[in-house]
Structure formats: structure tokens, C-alpha cells
Fold each of these.
Amino acid sequence: MSPQPLLTVDGLTHRFAGARDGRPAVGDASLALYPAEVVAIVGESGSGKSTLLNCIAGRIAPGHGDIRYRDADDRWLDVRTLSERERRTLSRTEWGFVEQNAVDGLRMGVSAGANIGERLMGQGQRHYGRLREQAYDWMNRVELDTDRIDDLPHGFSGGMRQRLQIARNLVTQPRLVLMDEPTSGLDVSVQARLLDLIRTLVSRMHLSALIVTHDLGVARLLAHRTLVMREGRIVEQGLTDRVLDDPQHAYTQLLVSSVVMP
Amino acid sequence: MKRDAMSQASNAVLEVHGLSKRFTMHLRGALELPVLDQVSLDVSAGECIALAGPSGRGKSTLLKCLYGSYGIDSGRVWLHGDDGTIDLASASAQDVLSLRRRAVSYVSQFLRVVPRVSALDVVAQRILEADPAVLDDEAYAQAFEQARAAARALLARLNLPSTLWDLPPATFSGGEQQRVNIARGFVVPSRLLLLDEPTASLDLVNRDVVVSLIHEAKANGTAVIGIFHDPAVRDAVATRTIPFE
């Protein structure tokens, strides 16, 4: 019944140089992500969840552990031993990364349309009319006013920038999207709209996504499964509703009971 | 975990053997709350069993264990289907999610609303989730329109005013939210249907609509397990009652 995973992480440990207490930022983390599955990594600041995501993305070389990705040709790639060039290719074709701060994920000096077109051009598309058509289409999909296609993202609000970042990532139809706190720092109403957009796009495109968030509500809304991290360790993982409604670990019980219900 | 189909009770959709569930409250000094102890039952296709007994005896907990929202400590829970038998007590998250899309539906006591999604789409999306094919934009729009038509028909049958259909249910009354929840639970035919007080906040007219929906589900071969505090509803739909003392 269960298909093969798309991504597996096995025994991943990473210690930052000079960490005072010697505790690893991520310790012995193992997980699998299946096709069309959304998995949330939740935990408080300093729990190691962003470090884990950055290790998976290849932005941090972890001290130990195994990260494997099954590519579109059904080959298992050892993410840690990919060359810089291979990793770059992967990250602009089959992978996407949505940064918490849109400024880090956008090119602020070029227009919204050019931001969306960049990955397509990276894949060799050169036809201006086609690029513009797709940029137009994606601005519509993420509910951005297409009249702003030639505007720089500087004049965009936080929510608009985040939607542009999502369009820029999804335009090449990636198979795996990593998101680091995609909605934090936004106003609540903007957040709800963005979450709804992510939810719709992910299910429409059958994307696999790993979403790092400190917000259990985000996990509840978006994720099929949830992993709970504390002090670098994954302390609990399972179906999102089971983790949130029947938490087993003392720390998860504390997290769940600390949420203020509206 | 698969099992020889020959040994299953005739027509059984679900067989529960010795299911136990306790909660450990780590924030209360690891206080142990045993809720279900060695529960066994079975439900056949077309049957509706009512879980009866006072509050706090674990009836809702049992439904949540069967749906997978709660883990199961021990016991076996066999869900039989044409494609084999799966033990819900040990099923993987992927298997549970797949069963929830096609085989098992659950009407909870309270609707969990998703911001910005209209009542109509809360119901229509349940249909789309049941068959998550990769569709191009045109085919998707067409599938969504068909799903919306089915959702409209059911919401109309449940007498939800059409002026509410395009609004998110967050601001609806309890009874209105409950009807959206019921529509979501019934709009896709399921093998196993779990109902937690589906008529608790409904008036008599809508109560009767839910009773007919349950009758129709049974006639379609759905196995139903429900908690019905209203004795009239229970008498109307239940083929058997399981006491929770």
C-alpha cells in the first residue's frame, strides 16, 4: 500500500563549531517524506528544526548521517556527496526553498515577473513571450495583481512578497519544497490567506513539502504528519491529529497545552 | 498486518479485539487515565451499532482510536476490504491517511474550520480528496464543479440556507456548523462511518434528515458506529447497542 519515500534522512547529527555545551544542534534525526505528503517540523526556538531543514537542503554539511533523495528519474541520490553543481541544478529544478524572510528568497533588484522567470531561464527557457505568459499565470495563481508584473518587490507588502517567493519556487513544478516558517512575521489575516494558498497549491500539485514552524496551528492546517523537535532531537512523530490530540511525549503535551485557543 | 480472509466473521467490516487505551498525563506527574480496557466488538456491512452509556466512559475515545486521531495501546482492529485486511492499531500513517480518503469517514462533534474556505468547499473538497488524481487546470475545474454540485445538493437537503454556502463556517451557529460537518462526512460513500453525536445540536426536521442519511448509508453497505444521545435517533438507526458502563 505504501509507496517509496521521496526523501529519507537517517541518523543525522550536526554540531556547530564552538557550541558551548557540546550538545548537537541536531542529534540522530531520522525521517522519511513520501510523495504528495506534507510534513511539519515543530518545536520552539533553538530546537534545531531550521538546522535540520538546512542540512536537508544542503546548506549545512552535517557531521554525521545520511540524506537521500529519489529524483524524477527514480535514482536515489546521496545528497551529501552531490557536487556543488549538481546541488544547484537540483535546487532550481526538482527542489524549492521558501525562506522565512522573503527578502532572502527573492531578487529584490529585478521585477516580480523576472523573479518568477528566473528558474525557468535557469532551465534554458529563453522565449520572452512564453516566460512572461508563465509569470502572468503564476501571479494569478498566488493571487498577485498582474498589473504589478514589472514592479520591483521592494514596493510589495510582506504577504505579497511571500506569495511572490512561492510563485518563484513553484513555477518549475518542483517535487520537493522546503519551507522555513513561511508565515511567521505576517499579520494574522495575511497569514490565513497565505496558509490557504499553500494548502491549495500543495494539494493541487501533489507536492511533497517539509515545513518548519513553531505554530501548531500551521501544522494542523497543512501537514499530514508532524515531527516534534526538542533540543536537537525528534521526540515524537506521527499523524498530525494524533500528535496534537494524543501527544505521548511530555514535551509535546506541554507544547499542546500551552496553545491559547481563540 | 494481513490475515486470512476466511476466518473473518461473515460480512464484518470491522473487528475490534481487546482494544485498550490509557492516557498518561506527563504534566500531572505521569498520572495514568485508563479509558478503554479490552474493548471488543464487530460491525458488519449495512449495520449500525450504537455506543451507549453515560459521558466519560470512552465512547468518543473509541471513535477517535478507530479514526486514528488517538493511538491504540494494545489490541487488534481489523478493517476488512476488497483489497485485504489492515490492522488499524498498527497501520502506518500513510495507510491511515489513505483509508481516511476512501474508506473511513468520521463526523466529529465539532467542525474544525479552515480559515477562508466556504461551507460549500469544505464539503466539495472532501470529494476531491477521495480521488487525488493529477489533473490539468481544466479537468480540475470541472471536477471541482461536479463536487460542488454534489455538495450543494447535500447542504440543501440538510436545510442549510443557500445564503451561507459561500461563507466560511467559522461564524455559523452550532447547528449550522454541525450540518456542514455531517455533509462532509456523508458526501463520500465510505466502508466505515463513525458518528459522534451527529444530531446533538439539530432541530427535529434536520434530525430526521440525518436519520435518513444513516439509513441510506446502511443500505449502501456502510458499517456505522455511532454515539447518539437522543434515544429516538438511536432507536431509528441502531441495529445493535453496545453498552459502555
Note: The two ends of chain B are 31 Å apart (CA to CA).
Amino acid sequence: MLEVRDLVVRYGQATALDGVSLKVGRGEMVALIGPNGAGKTTLLNAISGLLKPARGDYRLHGRVAQVPEGRQLFSDMTVDDNLRLGAWKAPNRDCRRVYDLFPPLLSLRRRRAGTLSGGEQQMVAVGRALMAQPDLLAVDELSLGLAPMIVDNLAEHVRRLSHDTGMAVLLVEQNARLALDLCRRAYVLEAGKIVASGPSPDLAQSAAMRAAYLGGAMDEVLPVPRGPTKPASSGGKDTGKEAS
Amino acid sequence: MRLFLQYASSGIATGCTFALVATGFVAIYRVTRVVNFAQGTFAVVGGMTAFTLLGHGLPHFLAEALAVVTAALVGLLVGAAAIGKRGTPPLASLIITLGIGIGTYAVLILVFGDQPVSFEELKGTATIAGVTMPLQFALVVVVTATCFAALTLFFNWTYLGKALTACSSNPHAARLVGIDTTRMGLVSFALGGVLGGLAGVLLTPLQPVSFDSDVGLAINGFAAAVFGGILRPVTALVGALVLGAAEALVAGYWRASFQSGVALAVMLALMVWQASRRQIVEEGTA
């Protein structure tokens, strides 16, 4: 469905992505884990066509839709308008399938999106992306700022949809535990490079992964890396090297 | 009292043309965050084109319609120059529109000459609530009201209108769902051209328009637009009507040369009052 090969993205002098390759198959859910500033969002924006890569390319069969970090709703427009605009590039603007998926939104459809709770807003963000009838759904930080129960519920919806329709999902998360639970495979991105990849259970077992992302037993020995927020930083590089 | 109402009705007619110019500012600013200082130029182009076409024997309405289309095309060209290249900062675009607005003087003089032009207004009078006014005033009011109704429908009920609003609400998200924000910006510039052109076509019979009439129009329109934060067309309409009425009353009872100064002073006082009120609300909720 998606094949990224040796992708390089630069912001002026800074290199945000330094030769990233990854694959997501049809109906597959793949996680992309990494600290702040590793280049995860840059990768999503590149495959969404918002950024031009300096080198390398990606092949995408069909449409991609993104659930951006921080929701990025049209906050002064209604829920209904938000959903309908999600279908700008798609043939069908009927929002019923999203309301079927997230029934709570139906009674909120005339409310302005900015007045909803965080969980409801995330539903709108996911729903808006689904309106594009994507073949690949790229989700950026689904869990950010939401209660665990709400996150589980949303993730379950996405998982079921992927299973039922064959939609591929690329899940970008700082919450590594959630990502590894949800996806069969995962990549770890640090400072613009893929430093580890493989089946989620294997990664979850890796000592370095446990220390760096899962808050495991080595917590006190190796601090959880907190990279700076700028792209192409060296945040978390040391622990990452060990993970690979 | 009769005199007052006559001044006021004339002021409201001029105010309506300010409102159209102001809405042009708003339409472009909402989508692109660019203050388009060539907005007055669109009106001048509209008025002068209509005058020329009428001179060539084209019938009314057709000449005016073609003039508005011309203004829309000029709007599109200005838009292409100001925001056509992606990533142009709004401030740079603003300077480009200002430059075009002034540079156009030469073109306007070459094409239309340097004399003020005017064409015959709609003949006849209308009497509304005991006030007799030229039919042209009624025409201006009706066209402006229709325009505002059409714009409201366009922005609230059509998919394209919603996409334009989306660009204003969250440009990043608009690009994410696949909306071409540059193209939407060009649409808004064309819309600004239509609104400016309409203002020019309606205004030229009321007061002669020359190549440099854009400054007065732009200042009045901009003042009205700023009254609504350059974002709300309806507030801009209220501001424009206040300005127009104030100008006509000052000119009628006092001196015509004071009209712009006094009107803008009234506007400034209103804005200061508005701003001071806002601050109190914020302190109250904090």
C-alpha cells in the first residue's frame, strides 16, 4: 500500500529525515515510535504531499488521509462542516458512515467543533480523515492529551475499520505501549533515522526499547529520552543506537 | 428633519459602496491574511470601464456587468502577483498590492485618461417614508443588500464557500484535506474584484471617479473593515453605513472638505470605545 524508500527531507540546512525506508501493507497496522523531534510528523507530511523530499521517494496506492497531531479541526465550523470538508478530494460527501461509526457525534453535528471535549474532537479528526475514504490512514499522536479509556475506544474503532475494509494504518505515537499493543509491526525513528524495526512483540521484549519507551525495569538506569522539539535534533540518539 | 433624512439617505447610499469595498477587504483577508491595498483600484477600474463601454453605445446593465467582470479579472491578476508564489509572507503580499495599486495609475491614465468620469444615474425618484431620494440611491441599497444576502448564502451553504471559510479557520488543516489554499486565495481575490467593481459601478453616477479615487475608497472601506476586525462582513457593513452617513451629514450641515476627516474621527472614536469595552470583558473573565 505504502512503500517509502530512502526518504530525505530537509528544512533549510537541517535534515529532518535522513534516509527513511518503511512499508505498510494493505489492511496492516504499523506503528512509528520515537521521541519528540525525531521526524515522525515530517514523515507523515511528506507522504501526505505537504512536503517535498530532497531525495528518495515513496509509492502509495490510492489515497492517504491524515489525522494530524493536535486534531487541527476547523474549530469555528460545525462538526458536520468539518466532516464534509474531509471529503474535498473524495467523491462521496455523505457523513452517515462517520456518524454510524461514532454515534455520539450525530447529536453534536450542529455544534462548533472547537466547543467539543478533547475526545469528541479527536473523533471528529478521525472522522474527517475517514471521509476521504483513504486507503492509508496516517494517525499522528492519537493518544495525546486524552484519557486512556477514550484512546482505547478510538483505537479499537480504527483497528476494526482497518480489519473490515483493508485500510492500511500508519500510527505515529509517543505512547509506545499503546502503539505496540495495537500494531503487529513497528518502526522506531530517532533523529531522522529508523533505528529499529520488527514485529511488535520482539520490540516490546528488547531491553533498550523497554528502557527508552516502555518505562521498564531499567527506568532508573537509563532515563527516558526527551528530545528537543526541533526536527533533526540528536534527542535520544544514544539509547536508540542500542535498540537497533 | 426632511433635510436631515435627505442627507442621511445620500450618506447611506455612499456608505453602501464603502461596504462593498470593505467586504472585498474582508473576503480577501479572511482567506489569505493579506490586506489588499489595491481594493480601491478595483472600484476605479469598474467605474471607468462602465463609463467607457457606455460611451461606446453598450446598453446599461450589460456595460456595468462587463465592467464588474473586468474588475474581477483585475482582482485575479493582482491575486496572482500577490499570493501566486506559495510561501509569500502576508506582509510582502500587502506591499505588492500597494505597489500595484499605485502602479496602476499610469495604466489607468493611459487607458481612460486623467479626467474624472461619471455617467448618468438611474432616472427618477423614489419616495420612501416621506423622504424623496434619487432612484440611484435605492438601486445602490438594493444591490448592496442583495450582495450581502448572496455572500451569506455562498459562505454558509455552498461547498466552495465552506472551503474558503476553512482556509480562514485553519490553513494547515485545509491543506491536509486537500484544499489548494493558493487557488482559494485567488478565488477570494476575484471575489474582491467583483465587490470592488460593483462599488465602482454604483458610485460613479453619484460622484465622479478619477484614476486616483481609489485612495479615498480604500481608506473608507478599510476603516469600515477594521471596525469588524477585517473578519466580519456584517460589522463592516455597519461601520460603512456609519461612515457614509457621517460624511454626508458633515458635508450637508458644515463643509464638504471636512467630511472625510470628521467621518474617520467618528470611526476612530468608535474603535477606541469598542477596544476599551473588549478589555473590560477580558479582565472580568480572567
Note: Chain B has one domain: 2-285.
Amino acid sequence: MDSVFVPLLLGCAVALASALGVVLARRPIYAAIFLLLHSLSLAALFALLSAPMVAVGQVLIYSGAIVVLFLFVVTLLPSGGRELQLSGSRVVAACVAAGGVLVALAASIAGGAVPPAVSLADLGVAAVGQALFGPLLVAFELTAPLLLVAIVGAVVIWRRHEPHVRTAERPVREAEPRKLVMHR
Amino acid sequence: MTAETLVLSTAIGLFGVGAAGALLHRHPVAMLMAVEVMLNAANLLIVLGARVRGGAAAEAAALIVLVLAAAEAVIGLALALALFRRKPVPDVDEAAELRG
């Protein structure tokens, strides 16, 4: 795997930098663009790790569907995505989380190397498909009702918070009898 | 540093960046994007595991995680838009209806 070390290094650098851009961008539209770059760099990493099917899925599902969904929502935001001032406790919590993960990173590097990759003769699309329709068949089939429930749930959440719920029955006002005014 | 260690440390670093961002932001959409970064880091680790162990099932699991991420984004964005209906500049701390 050392033949792809330099492209991997490049992809990892782009992925980390764009992730920092997602987190640190002040406007959500820039964060969404950085998320697009992040997902594309991860697709490149998957391709370099000889997982071409996951790379294609990443481009199709992530860059094509999820990031575009984020872009739609950001452009629909009423305030243009303004954010309240960050509080100090949030900055402290974020620094603690990042520090903890840095400790985990150092421990994982110092603790021992990852075993080298095995030969990749049988990791093609056919093998992935056989795994998907063999041992993982139940999980694969369950993604269909999951997506259906997600769609229905999104609609329900949207309708429930509507200011004027259209489904509630309106009180039917009795038509007042018109007063007859006689003009002389 | 071998290539595997490089990818492992990138995945851990991405997870840390995403966790820090999810804790940092008060904007629901920005928070969701940080969660997506964390999901991507986990997926990268799964693919690295598939590469190291040579298991095709792990790659298939990574594909299923992609679909899960799509469902999570749909529900999360619907919740974020529901928050926006209530206030033009929302704060995720104020959404506490489920508190017991």
C-alpha cells in the first residue's frame, strides 16, 4: 500500500482541512461548500483504499443527495443562516472534545501499528454485492423501510410545527341571518 | 509512518474535528454538518478495516452507513427547519420539549 502513500497523504490533508472549514466557517453556505469538498476528498480516499464501490456511493449519495439537501436548506433559511454569539462554555467543551480525541490519536499511534493490508484479489464489486445480498441481506432490506419512515417522519415533523395546521377542523361559523333593512 | 497509520490518524482527527464542531455551534444546520463529518470519519475507519482485514462485508456495511447518513440528514434537517419556524435565529439549547 506504500505505492499510494503520497496520494493518500494529499487526500487526508484535503479531508482534514475541509473538515476544519466545515466547523469553522461562519456562514452555513460556506460550510456546505466545504462539506462538498470534504465528501469528494473522502471519495478519493475510498478509491485509493481500493473500495471503488464505496467511493461511487459516496459521490452519488453524499455529494449528490445529502450535500445538495444541505444547500437547499441553507438557501431556504429565513435569516440567511445567522448564528447567535458563541458562548464561552461551548468553546471550552469543544476544546475538551478536541483534546480528548488528540490524546486518543497519540495513544493509537504509539500503541501499535495497524497491520499491513492483505492482498486485494477478492474485494471487487462482485464480492461486495455478494456480501450485501448474503450475510447483510436483512440490514440491506431494512434500509428500504428506514428511508420510507424517514420521509414520512420529515413530513410529519414539518406539518406539526406549522403555524396554522391545515388538517385541524375549523369551527364552522353559523351564518347569521341577514337583517332586512327596509328603506323607505 | 505507514499508509494504514496515516489513514487511521486521519479518521481519528476527522472525528475529533466533527465532535468539536457539534459541541461548538448553536446553529442546528451547522451542528448537523459537524455530525456528518463524524459519520464520514467512522465510514473511513470501516473502509480501512475492510482494506486491512480483506473483508468484503465491511465494505457493504460502509454502503449501508451511507444510507443511514442520508436518513439521519433528512430527519435532522426537518427538525432544524421546524426550529426555524419558531424563531428566525434559533438556538439548539432552547429545544427542550423532551426534557422530563
Note: Helices of chain B lie at 3-24, 28-53, 56-86.
Amino acid sequence: MSAPPLDRPTSSDEHALQALFDATIAAGHRIEPRDWMPDGYRKTLVRQIAQHAHSEIIGMQPEGDWLLAAPSLRRKAILLAKVQDEAGHGMYLYSAAETLGADRADLTDKLIEGRQKYSSIFNYPTLTYADVGVIGWLVDGAAICNQVPLCRSSYGPYARAMIRVCKEESFHQRQGYELLLTMMAGTDAQRAMVQDAVDRWWWPSLMMFGPPDTDSPNSAQSMAWGIKRHSNDELRQRFVDMTVPQAEVLGVTLPDPDLSLDPETGRYRFGPIDWDELKRVISGRGPCNAERIARRRAARDDNAWVTEAATAYARKHQS
Amino acid sequence: MSELTAEGGHGAVPTGPEVPVEAKPALSRRDWPLYEVFVRGKRGLNHVHVGSLHAPDDEMAVHAARDVYTRRNEGVSIWVVKAADITASSPDEKDPMFAPSGDKVYRHPTFYEIPENVPHM
């Protein structure tokens, strides 16, 4: 990839700046923090990156619930590493959002106040340890489908954060799948537990890709800007095609009677998604919405004394 | 359905109206400066910018950088520097400062044609 053109406008001429921005996107170059960018591009990115960051942070909770009940030291160490990674992913992403002029503490406040969102998937409860495995396999698998194309997102800091995230997601998915393989080789009760978790997480995992393309008004602009590289339905189909053979190896049944291989396209057809459920969960009426936010609020407020003490210490040693 | 969208790598998120709003507490974390983090991946390589974080002081910034950016042996050395202390080439990155090097092709070895029978050049 060659360097961007050198004859760049130096005036504040909006048209010239817009033209340069458009040319940079069209050439597949990255937009960097101090480049001129349209307000809509900046706002869309801040919203998307913040929502992504919030999802990582809230995403620590469903699995974190099992840290003290992990069945072995090995599983506990693995789960602890995974949950810590989610925190790290949130940090990479807040860091990227800050390059756009957002304030990190402010973004957290917006999450807690309900002015910014996180992924609907984390509003479901983790009822058994099999859920830890299924989250790694399906939820992180879906996240990988979403995230790999974002490594080529047009905004440099976001793309670079996603590369770091994707490197670590693979561990998340594999530890989940291995956990499930272990349980499937166990007792009938363990196998039933895995199937039950798959039954509960399959459809919410498909909903992670968002509304159908026919009902996704912002997608076209995001794709034109190179923020997003593939449509919701395209990514969802890709996920289904990847996952069905994995389910077969695992020996579980995906809870969709309409699931079948289309011999012409080589892709899997699947049944209708309950969009009303997605609407319900993201409008705050999922099983765990209130609990997730309450815990994030408590983490901020109850730990405020630590940050205050650290600040006081730093000030004392400055003077 | 238009009040939700698939944004963020973790999937569908709502964009519509929201949960009740409460006054936010004044947090001293807001006063923590932004640090840019540079990591040397291994001996023989330069430190490379990897991201940023907030910390109350330099020492805490190094510790936080270790936890955020080197959980898997990604580094053998970390630099942190307050973002405010960095001086950059210009306020933006479309910079005429670098234009002078654009037309000096004679600074590159490929500018010079050497007969093929000249060895080791």
C-alpha cells in the first residue's frame, strides 16, 4: 500500500478536506486521529467503539459469575485469564475512542446512565458451567465473525485495537469448545447440561449480528465509510456456516428444525429469528439488564476511594 | 427495528431511548492524565506505540500498561509518556512538512542505473 498523496489541502476549505477524506477511504488508506473527518464519521465511530468497549466490560459479568465456582483450578485459571482479557479489550477500545476526542470516564458514565449501549447478548444469565463453554464457542465465535473484518476498518486506531482483540479471541473460543468437548465426554447429566446451554444461547448468538439488512438503516453509510465491511446478514450466514459442522463434531443439536444445507449454495438455511425478543432485550427488558448496569455502577462508585487515594498520593509526590 | 443496529464487534446494540438517568458523581479519576504506551516486543526491536491509558502517576502507568498491553509476553520493556508531553510535527497529519522529500528520487538507490555485469552493487 503506497503512502497517501502528498499534495494535501492545507486550507480550511471544507470541500477540499472532504475530497481528501473521500479519496483516502476510496484508496483503502486509513484515517488517523488528527486527520480531518466528517462529523458524522467521528460520531458514528465514537458511538460504535464506545458500545463495543462497553460490551467487553459488561461481558466480564456473565462469565465472572462462575469464577468462584469453577470446577477445577485449571478451569478457574483459564476463566480468570479470559475475563481479564475482556477487561483488556475494553481498555484497547476506550483508548481508540479517546483518539476521537471522547473522554473515557465520560463514556463509562454514559453507559451507567443508559445513554450508551452494549451488546444485547450479555443480558442473558449464565445458569450452569456449560454456559461458560457455550459463551466461548458461540458468543465469542460470533464476535470473531464480527471483529475480523473490523481489523480492516477505515479508522486506524480502531483497526489496530481490533487486531489485538482478535489475536486473543481465538483463545476464548477454543477454551470454550474444549470445555464443551470435555463435558460431552462425561456423564449423561453433563451432556444434557451442554445441550441445554446450546438451546438457550443459539438464537441470542444469531441476534448478535443485529437486525436483518432490510431493516438496518445505518449500515449503508457505515459501509460507505469503510467502518463496517460486511452486512449483518452476510456475517450471520458466515457464522452459521462455520458453526454447524462444529456442532456436529461436538454432538449437540442446534435448536432450529429448519436448519439445513442448501445443496446449491453450500450454505445453511436457518429458521426465522425472533426479532421481538431482540427488541425486548435491548430495550431493557432482558433477564439481566438491570443487574448488569447495577454491578457496573457499583464497581465505579464503590471503588471510587481507590482512585481518590491514588490521585492524592500522586499529588503529594508531585509537590 | 430501526432503533437497533449491529455495531461493535460484540453484536447488536440498541440505539433508542434509554434507561433512567441519574446525576453522576464527581470522580477524581477524571484528573488522571492520559499516557501513551510504547512496548519493545523483544530484544533487537524498537519500542512501538500500542495505545494509551489513564493513570495517576508514572509508576502506576507502567504497571497498568503491563496488565493492559503485555498479558502474553508481548513485551520486554515498556515506555509510558504523558500524551500532553508529546510534541508532534503539526496539528494535523496532512502535513506540507514532508513534501520536500517527495521529489528527491535521487536519494534512493533505484535512481541509479548500473550495468548488470557490475558485481556486488
Note: Residues 77 and 88 of chain B are 23 Å apart (CA to CA).
